């Protein structure tokens, strides 16, 4: 039976391959071709503490006491917290749900202080592996308190080191009964990488405590509820053309109840619906859809939200990548509401500030639209009947209501196979504009597959390579990716977008390797792969110029370990040449620059090279860095590039005309 199905599939594949070949438009290699202006972007997923404990600048862990064993079997509402009675105070502490700040945020602490002792009674939070604080800097503290009995209560919040030495503090007095938000500024006088926050109440009384929060005053672009400035800046420095969020598997979730619902992640943080993270920790969703859109705008990246296609991850309830039986569909009677949620997202992003969802965007401080252009539906889902039925519903509704939105469909988790074929077939039937291909492979795979898109049918859906990476962070890995990326540029008419994945990971909390950027509480470590991505994104063009670079040497060596590309950015007129050499020998060649109008005398040369096994790690953060210099140009520019290198030449101010 299996054999028969296999044969039918093969026949269908051959028939389809024939169709692809005959319907294909030929690319005229002599002429420049338009390529995607959005080719290289980034993929953000709250994986490996990328959001909470990562890009989201909140320093308090479990600020709302919502951690639970569902997140992680060792966790509960008091994780990262300690009951503080150091000054011999006495009372009781309990986790309550009877009268919360908001029903979406059910847990809070109830302190019943019977004797305040010498120092007071309260709570201590240890942050994410400690809180890094800097002398001379201010920190924004806030808390919701509900004084249930007792007079106005004196409260002290202090940052302390491991031995209890005070690094900075602030005091205030509660003013009335009922939940109220108190905000304070804490000025810090000493550097410390692993501070704790202590909140002490020095009076008898009964008080509810929730949403204990501490942010550095200086966040990225100084937004409130903002992002960690150093990490955000390293991401911004890639100069990505787009940013995909919030995942990955996180998007379609571990079971239907765990599907990422964008509406749960907007509005006042104390009213957002927190939930388990599929990667076995917790999502405070403090970094939610508003913050994602805002970050995209801040770094000049087009937002690419990806929503679940009405189904949960096929690996739900099982071991990661094993199983494949856990996909469940949102019940059909709930699907029209789900489809409406998808449409509402478009209104939230693009609708007028007077529309229902645009009003909420405006209330968050952004009356102008976010100019949403792309929308992903589904994440490498198993292409089943359950999936297809729901995908079609969402696709048809969005396509009808918003023909201006470029919908990205999904074709499974691998570069080929059953879901890949079925996903493409569905995309053909619906004429989906773009499909999302994913692959994590050995570096050799990338070197062998540089011709992958040469034969793609230009009349079918375009491609977004939403997730890809070679398995490793060595220079050789990064160069295999670079060689492959030159082929994405030459195929930039069919490959519209590509994003390396995953983007960032906190050292000590990585659920997935490799990543593009590693970080700890105080430092950020870009990998060699990062510098390759940065060179391609920052030096991209919207026009591919074929036939400029000719490599000399053995064809088999060139074909298997090297890649070149030449693009022009029409906005600046700059022409950019790239020569990626993942081989162990120097390569030479010539670039014919004679067609560039007013060729300048010099250009910027950037080279990434070194030992193929070298990596940037927390011990050797600068093992391989791009080196920049200025070179003289000639109409026929002869070059030699080192073994294991990426060379980028940016010819600026050339006022380069289109090649005739
Ligand atoms: O990037 C890590 C994971 O890999 C993503 O969450 C998933 O989509 C893919 O399988």
TrEMBL record:
Signal sequence extent: 1-23
Top-rank EC class of the record's enzyme: hydrolase
Keyword annotations from UniProtKB, A to Z: Hydrolase, Signal
Positions of the Alpha-L-arabinofuranosidase C-terminal domain: 466-645
Pfam families for the chain: Alpha-L-AF_C, ASD1_dom
InterPro entries per the UniProt record, alphabetical: Alpha-L-AF_C (IPR010720), ASD1_cat (IPR055235), Galactose-bd-like_sf (IPR008979), GH (IPR017853), Glyco_hydro_b (IPR013780), Glycosyl_Hydrolase_51 (IPR051563)
Catalytic activity, EC: 3.2.1.55
Cited Gene3D superfamilies: Galactose-binding domain-like (2.60.120.260), Glycosidases (3.20.20.80), Golgi alpha-mannosidase II (2.60.40.1180)
Catalytic activity: Hydrolysis of terminal non-reducing alpha-L-arabinofuranoside residues in alpha-L-arabinosides
Record PANTHER family: ALPHA-L-ARABINOFURANOSIDASE 1, SECRETED ARABINOSIDASE
Family as reported in the entry's similarity comment: Belongs to the glycosyl hydrolase 51 family.
Protein name: non-reducing end alpha-L-arabinofuranosidase
Species of origin: Mucilaginibacter angelicae
